[in-house]
Design goal:
Elements: E1 27-28, E2 31-33, E3 51-52, E4 66-69, E5 76-78, E6 80-81, E7 100-101, E8 104-110, E9 123-133, E10 139-149, E11 163-167, E12 173-180, E13 194-200, E14 206-213, E15 222-223, E16 226-230, E17 234-238, E18 245-247, H1 249-252, E19 263-265, E20 275-278, E21 284-287, E22 310-314, E23 319-324, E24 332-338, E25 344-351, E26 364-365, E27 371-375, E28 380-384, E29 390-393, E30 401-406, E31 411-416, E32 421-425, E33 431-434, E34 450-455, E35 458-463
Parallel strand pairs: 6-11
Antiparallel strand pairs: 1-2, 2-3, 4-35, 5-8, 7-8, 8-9, 9-10, 11-12, 12-13, 13-14, 15-16, 16-17, 17-18, 19-20, 20-21, 22-23, 23-24, 24-25, 26-27, 27-28, 28-29, 30-31, 31-32, 32-33, 34-35
Length: 467
């Protein structure tokens, strides 16, 4: 199970469009019953739902909203990551599995028949995926994947290689289902291998689909609704058809920020301005060497503001955090920038960065993009990204705070220098509680604030509480 365990936690043608493919509240000494349950279905019956027996976790509701039982041979697993075999990561991803997609959970069951190690006949992998409403547990859509494979050729197909979470062309969360349309050789006809790439939004509605032929095209990375083609160039072909775009390799390997197909930055240095580049064209959009893009506050700081490192970190949609580090001075300046224009949205607090590189600094951002928390080496700092106002700063006598995640409810999960993990109010630093020593943090939240918790009894959907 890939859910975080514990208490919590040649010529490249455009891809063508194809049609669809086959393929009651009670508390007791024994635990807490979920206040809801999945609607009746073969995989998630209302009766016999498991009871949560774990302790309360700061930042989560006292009761689960709904639950699922884990049955032997029908266990639920998280989906895979659509960019799983790609260096061209969307900033902040790089997961090997993920359960949440928008306001839903995507869980998959491996219902394949057991195969003996000595088996030589063609076998069929059978996966069934379920898209659940995160708040109610109602099943929105079921996906069935069946693929034949040669058991002598290595390991059997994995569910997370066929049922995945990714992003659509506008950057919104989406489901990716890879189904097989293979035929065996017969007479003069050679065997064929076809893979159907179909994407759905978080409601279960189909977005578009494409079919690719050949074993080499069976498990290609999908980045924002585009398949990364296996050719000498880094070519991205849109699912459902359309115009391909090609990127230089060094740009294609950059983290993607912004909405749509997004942007990447260049390899800049102390004396080279940071340039923002449109991924679809490879052209520069703006750079930090343009005085129009330099905040007035830079000129009020000590040092040579024209030079020095500039580091860009994603916020939400088309905004990012840009940290200016003028040469010969003590402090860096935190700003929020509009990615399409380079306009400074807000100027935040000055901060001293003592780490070897700000690449080592993890900026944790609230889901709405308005609150950011980071520890740049001299204690944690929180600020409002839209106004620039400092919200709080770690005091000299505080334990060192390393931010980990901000929930949709405004709860900051953080690790402390003594190995403990705490829940704080992201906007005020108020301590809400300590996490159990044998527990784990939530792996992630849906857009409407739910997370999945696994215990030996089953899966439980908890809503985040407001800080």
């Amino acid at each position: 199970m890939k859910i975080r365990t514990g208490l919590v936690v040649g010529t490249v043608l455009s891809l063508g469009l194809v049609t669809g493919c086959g393929g009651g509240d009670t508390d007791a000494e024994t635990g807490t019953e979920a206040s809801g349950s999945p609607k009746s279905s073969a995989s998630a019956p209302a009766a016999g739902r498991p009871v949560y027996k774990g302790v309360a976790v700061p930042g989560l509701a006292a009761k689960p909203a709904w639950s699922l039982a884990q049955k032997d041979g029908e266990e639920y697993d998280c989906a895979g990551e659509a960019t799983f075999d790609s260096d061209h990561r969307i900033a902040g991803t790089g997961r090997d599995s993920v359960c949440q997609v928008g306001d839903a959970f995507l869980l998959v069951q491996d219902l394949s028949a057991p195969v003996d190690e000595s088996e030589t006949e063609t076998q069929t992998a059978h996966f069934v995926a379920h898209l659940y409403d995160a708040a109610t547990g109602e099943e929105r859509k079921t996906f069935t994947v069946k693929c034949d494979y040669d058991p002598t050729g290595g390991t059997a197909p994995l569910p997370r290689a066929h049922v995945q979470v990714g992003e659509w062309k506008d950057g919104s969360p989406a489901v990716l289902i890879r189904t097989c349309e293979n035929t065996e050789a017969s007479g003069l006809k050679a065997a064929t291998v076809k893979t159907v790439y179909t994407m759905y939004d978080s409601s279960g509605a189909e977005l578009s689909s494409s079919t690719l032929s050949g074993e080499e095209n069976a498990d290609l990375p999908v980045i924002r609704g585009h398949v990364e083609m296996p050719d000498d160039k880094v070519t991205f072909a849109p699912i459902g058809g359309g115009k391909n775009f090609v990127l230089d390799k060094y740009l294609a390997e950059k983290d993607i920020i912004g909405s749509g197909q997004g942007y990447v930055d260049n390899d800049h240095g102390l004396y080279t301005p940071l340039r923002l580049i449109d991924r679809t064209t490879g052209e520069s959009v703006w750079d930090t060497g343009d005085e129009a893009n330099q905040p007035d506050e830079l000129r009020e700081m000590d040092g040579e503001f024209e030079d020095g490192p500039r580091n860009l970190f994603p916020l939400r949609a088309d905004q990012a955090t840009l940290i200016w580090s003028p040469l010969g001075k003590g402090d860096e300046l935190i700003t929020t920038v509009d990615l399409p224009t380079g306009r400074t949205v807000a100027v935040g607090p000055a901060v001293r960065i003592t780490l070897a590189s700000t690449d080592l600094a993890k900026i944790v951002v609230s889901p709405d993009g308005t609150t950011a928390v980071a520890n740049f080496g001299e204690g944690a700092l929180a600020w409002n990204t839209q106004t620039g106002a400092e919200l709080w700063r770690q005091e000299a006598d505080d334990k060192d705070i390393e931010p980990l995640m901000i929930t949709p409810g405004g709860v900051l999960y953080a690790s402390l220098d003594d190995g403990e993990e705490a829940a704080l109010a992201a906007g005020t630093k108020e301590l809400l509680g300590m996490l159990p020593e044998d527990g784990e943090l939530p792996a992630g939240f849906t857009s409407n604030g739910y997370t999945l918790v696994e215990t030996t009894d089953g899966l439980f959907a908890f809503e985040t509480e407001k800080a």
